[in-house]
Structure formats: C-alpha cells, structure tokens
C-alpha cells in the first residue's frame, strides 16, 4: 500500500517571493504526500547545491524549472513502484541518481522535495502524523523555541552586523506557554523600538530590523523587551545569537602567522582577528544571559572554533551551522577536534531526510545538541515541526512569532501538543547542551 504510483512537481513562491519547488507523491493506496523546499540567504559554502535556472529574464534567474523537470523526467520514472516507506532505500536511490557529492546535477532542492514527500505519503498511508511515523512512541518532546525577534546581517539591510538576536523561553512550563512568552516579548519589543523612534519594519525571518547604534544596543533592547513583557532575563528567558560571522570575514586581509582570520564589524568600524573575536564572545557571555551562540566563528575557522569551545563551551551552547551544514562528515570532524558542542539541522543543506536523521543521530550519540531549523526563504510547509518532535532534539528555530510561514510551524507544534495531551513534555533549560 506504500508503492509509489505518481510523482509530480511544480514551482511555488517562498516567503521572499522567490520560486521554490513543491513535490507531490501519490501511492497506490491513494495516500498523498506533499513537501515544499525552503531556501537560505546566508548559505554556507559547503551546503548541497540548490538548482536554479539562471535565466535573467525570468524571476531574475531564480526560477526552478530545471529542478522541476529533473523530478518529472529523471527522478519520477526511477522511483515508480518503489516503496515510499523504505526511506533509506528511496534516499539512496536519489543520491545515486544524482551521482555528485553536492547533489548539483539534479539539485538538492529537487531531491529533498521528493525525499520529504515520500515520507509524508508513507505516514498518510499508515494513518499516522509525521512525527509519530518518524519517531515512534518515544516522540513526545516539544522543542524549546529560538524566536528570532531582531534581524540584522543578510536578513535585514542597514541593521546590525550580526544576523539574529533570539529569545528562548527556557522557564516556561509547556510549549504553549513558551509560545505565549515569545509573542508577548515580540510585542514588547515593538513597543520599545517604536518608543525610541526606531523602525518596526521586519526582516526576512519576521524579526524587527531597526538601525541601531551598535550590535550591543540590540542585546540591550531585547533585554528591555523581556522585562517589559513581565519576564526575568536569565531565569524565564535567555538569549540565543546567530551572528553568521562567515559573512563578516575580510577576504582581503591575509591570515595572521597563527592562521587567524580577520572579521570586519562595519557597524562599529573595527576589525577583529580570530582570538579577539573569541574574547569578544567570552565578554558578552560573561555579561549577558546568552546560552546559545550559533556561527560565532566562520565556516572554515576551525582554529577559532576550537579556541571558543575551550573558552566558553562549558557554559554556552556553541552551534555550528555553516561549519557543519548538516553533514555527518563535517560534524564528525567537529566532534573529533572539539569544535562546537551542537549542530544546526537544515534539511536542504544535506538534501535527504535519511542523511538529516543520520546527522542528528551522530550528534546525539556524541553528546552534541541538535537544533532543527527553518531557512530565511520559507513556505507554509511544517515538516520541521514534526521533525523536531520525532527526533527529540528539544530545540527549534523558526523565526519570529510573526509572518504566516513562521507561525505555521509554531501552530503545528500547538496541535502536536494537544494530540500528545498529558504525555507531552517540554524540556526547558535542560534542552541546551550546557546550562547555567
């Protein structure tokens, strides 16, 4: 009843108005699975390749008709009559069909759309929600959210150097109360910014994008918003950062004799070498309730990652996004070298559900945290909400509690919480790799 009978694909639009691909898989039982693939703006050099059309006259070259054709003419015929419930075999076949190390021939977007649609179809065939189909009876942990309430970097022009300032309601007793806290802090931040004469326009991930005097000013206004909403920073709510500093590397500056890179903070008119940036983060972590720092060093600054982990890894979760790109090989190197203590999980960085689950499993077996994440170019697809519960990672990033493509994931988690009822658990502060 899980034999593949039809695979279809077409272009849709993501939250930035750019094309992306949606795939539909129909099984012989009539069960249907649908998946839409997100797209990132701040992408790592080591990610799987997203196939675009490069036709300047159409969507500025960002169309995905080539990916659609690959699904219809290459992948679809090859998967016909295959068992959608055998996820590992499906994904292995997809990888072999592409035949490149970065999925650049067929496109990671085409491959991922099919991989996820197969999982959704198989879950529907068995009459199970996706989180239960993937995670079994143990899937009952709701994730602690990282609400991106203030945007900068590539997500918001003329804002801060650093990309994401987030709040985590670690003191909430349940998922629904955590969501309430995030929404209330978001509203309080709007009031704070408006009262100070700042813009309350929003960035790609729904957070506000004011033009502030410094990066530190962003931390301070977030702390004021937490307090205005009636919560205690460091107790009820902690701060998580994603500065995305790969984007801040000064490519014209040669590495120092010790192999340190140079980072340019344009907003503050200064540059820092690797060891100075490590000092910078250690100082912020000392002075502010920052319990998670993602991409605090660049994607290939392995020296800096080791230095940072040795310096603050016992008191702050250090999440590799561009560093690990959801890739088991790069994560394995990080584990071996003591670089970071957590991995960000983005399905489209690696391109199949099976490889994603392998990366999560590798992290969990080695005491690393894992944070399930959206992308800046999102859709109403809610797969990552189910994935967070299925894998029990205990953490999720899906942007601000604003904009429907972000809130769709949060509302899905509300429904899962209701389904689980008294069996639902919310880990709070314990979800973080290190806690203070």
How would you sum up this structure, described in words?
- The chain is an alpha/beta fold and 436 residues long.
- Helices cover 38% and strands 16% of the residues.
- It contains 13 helices and 13 strands.
- The strands form three sheets. An eight-stranded mixed β-barrel has the order 4-5-6-9-10-11-12-13, surrounded by five helices. Strands 1-2-3 form a three-stranded antiparallel β-sheet. A two-stranded antiparallel ribbon has the order 7-8.
- Strand 2 and strand 3 (32-36) form a beta hairpin.
- Helix 1 crosses helix 3 (108-125).
- The longest helix is centred in the middle third of the chain and has 21 residues, at 175-195.
- The protein is globular, with a radius of gyration of 21 Å.
- 56% of the residues are buried.
According to DSSP, the number of beta strands is 13
- Characterize the largest beta sheet: strand count, sense, and whether it forms a barrel: 8 strands, mixed, barrel
**Can you count the helices?**
13
Instruction: Provide the structure class.
Output: alpha/beta
Offer a few descriptive terms:
13 strands, 8-stranded mixed barrel, 436 residues, alpha/beta, 13 helices
Would you spell out the secondary-structure blueprint of this structure?
Elements: E1 4-13, E2 19-27, E3 32-36, H1 65-79, H2 87-98, H3 108-125, H4 130-135, E4 144-151, E5 164-168, H5 175-195, H6 215-228, E6 238-242, E7 262-265, E8 270-273, H7 274-287, E9 290-294, H8 302-312, E10 317-320, H9 328-337, E11 342-345, H10 347-350, H11 353-365, E12 369-373, H12 383-391, E13 395-397, H13 404-420
Parallel strand pairs: 4-13, 6-9, 9-10, 10-11, 11-12, 12-13
Antiparallel strand pairs: 1-2, 2-3, 4-5, 5-6, 7-8
């Amino acid at each position: 009843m899980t034999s593949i009978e039809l695979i279809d694909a077409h272009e849709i639009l993501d939250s930035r108005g750019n094309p992306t691909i949606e795939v539909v898989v129909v099984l012989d039982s009539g069960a249907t699975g649908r998946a839409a693939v997100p797209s990132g703006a701040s992408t790592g050099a080591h990610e799987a390749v997203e196939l675009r059309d490069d036709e300047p006259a159409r969507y500025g070259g960002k169309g995905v008709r080539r990916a659609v054709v690959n699904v219809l003419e290459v992948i679809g015929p090859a998967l016909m009559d295959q068992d959608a419930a055998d996820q590992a075999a499906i994904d292995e076949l997809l990888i072999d069909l592409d035949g490149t190390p970065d999925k650049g021939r067929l496109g990671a977007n085409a491959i991922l759309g099919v991989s996820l649609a197969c999982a959704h179809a198989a879950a529907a065939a068995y009459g199970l929600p996706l989180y239960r189909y993937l995670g079994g009876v143990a899937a009952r942990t709701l994730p602690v959210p990282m609400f991106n309430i203030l945007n900068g970097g590539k997500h918001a022009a003329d804002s801060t150097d650093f990309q994401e300032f987030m709040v985590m309601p670690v003191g909430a007793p349940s998922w629904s109360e955590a969501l309430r806290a995030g929404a209330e802090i978001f509203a309080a931040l709007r009031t704070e910014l408006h009262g100070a004469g700042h813009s309350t326009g929003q960035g790609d991930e729904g957070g506000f994008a004011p033009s502030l005097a410094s990066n530190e000013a962003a931390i301070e206004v977030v702390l004021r918003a937490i307090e205005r909403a009636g919560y205690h920073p460091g107790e009820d709510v902690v701060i998580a950062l994603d500065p995305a500093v790969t984007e801040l590397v000064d490519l014209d500056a040669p590495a120092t004799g010790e192999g340190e890179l140079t980072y340019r903070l344009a907003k503050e008119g200064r540059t820092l070498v690797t060891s100075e940036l490590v000092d910078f983060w250690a100082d912020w972590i000392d002075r502010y309730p920052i319990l998670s720092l993602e991409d605090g060093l660049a994607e290939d600054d392995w020296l800096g990652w080791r230095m940072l982990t040795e310096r603050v890894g016992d008191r702050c979760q250090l999440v590799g996004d561009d560093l690990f790109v959801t890739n088991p090989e790069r994560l394995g190197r990080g584990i071996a070298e003591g670089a970071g203590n957590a991995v960000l999980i983005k399905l489209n960085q690696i391109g199949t559900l099976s490889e994603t689950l392998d990366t999560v499993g590798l992290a969990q077996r080695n005491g690393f945290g894992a944070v399930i994440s959206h992308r800046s170019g999102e859709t109403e697809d809610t797969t990552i909400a189910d994935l967070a519960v299925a894998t029990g990672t205990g953490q999720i990033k899906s942007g601000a509690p604003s904009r429907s493509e972000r809130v769709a994931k949060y509302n899905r988690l509300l429904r899962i919480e209701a389904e689980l009822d008294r069996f639902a658990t919310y880990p709070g502060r314990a979800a973080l790799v290190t806690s203070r």
